[in-house]
Amino acid sequence: MTRDAVQGRRQPSSVDCKTHVGNGFSRQHNASHESITLLNSSSGHRDYRTTHTMSDKPSVKKSDSSQSVNDGLQLKKELGLLNGVAIIVGIIVGSGIFVSPRGVLEEAGSVGLALIVWISSGILSGIGALCYAELGTSIPKSGGDYAYINEAFGPLPAFLFLWVALLIIMPVGNAIAALTFANYILQPLFPTCDPPDNAVRLVAAIVICLLTFVNCYNVSYATKVQNVFTFAKIAALILIVICGFVHLIRGNGQNLSYPKSFDNTNTSPSKIALAFYSGLFSYAGWNYLNFVTEELKEPYKNLPRAIYISLPLVTIIYLLTNIAYFAVLTPDEVLTSNAVAA
After folding, report:
1. What pLDDT does residue 73 have?
2. Residues in Cβ contact with 67 at an 8 Å cutoff, skipping those fewer than 6 apart
3. How high is the pLDDT of residue 154?
4. What is the residue range of 181's domain?
5. Are 101 and 136 in the same domain?
6. Hey, which residues does 52 pair with through a beta bridge?
7. Based on the domain organization, do 17 and 158 belong to the same domain?
8. SS3 assignment, position 47
9. For the residues 16-38, what does the mean pLDDT come to?
10. Would you say residue 297 lies in a domain?
11. Are residues 13 and 133 in the same domain?
């Protein structure tokens, strides 16, 4: 009698793993299960072969509410059109309109050319702002210049620009604005002389620290503070314009009359270039809304609209403010004053 031979033949088990990355993870595993089948061989011996059948296990999926791995952090969209206009106007209307009239007039040489420089600077700034409106809607990311340089030239130039802006460009601009603010705040306390340098620096440092804290504390609170100070600055400039036009109505506009307004005009290209430098400095800040594009509601609509509203508004305010300056003050008084609006 022969004994039954048991032959176990294992076929390679296959495992089909499918991973999908989307709103969550889903994995499907096909596990192999063994079954023994009895076969009759041609020799009369019974042959036990091990076969494998594939069965699907139910897929395991995470909740649809789970975040995708590829999804980045999204900032809260809390800024509307009014907030966008307030940001642009509030940043542009700063120290420039209070200190630059002296520099523009000094290089231009005449009131007439100085006013032309102010208008032309507004037009040039508007052209640049329109370019940023296109960039902001094409690349709707926060970060402004950094985001655009990164998309166009790669991470290294963007990284270098970011550090230059962080260590040089931004601190210098903020320091000038803070010092100008401190000078105007302290000027009424020292009517016959300039405020002490240490006092001006102390007030400027306090202002910078306070505003830094406000911006870090809460976005909503920071926008409210921004709106309040923006409206306060615009109201102050409107008051200056009203006072200036009252002088014009009373017949005190000799400095603005033609051809006297173009007396002593500088025709040197270098002088005119320096005049434009001072004028364009006063319009700096029209690109700052692009730094918070992700926080803007409907950025494809509100970003261009905010720019379209802000730049013409600022240009008109600057032009009327300078007319008011020259209606009240003579060119010599403007050139010798550290605080023109005081």
Report:
1. 65
2. 23
3. 92
4. 81-336
5. yes
6. 34
7. no
8. strand
9. 41
10. yes
11. no
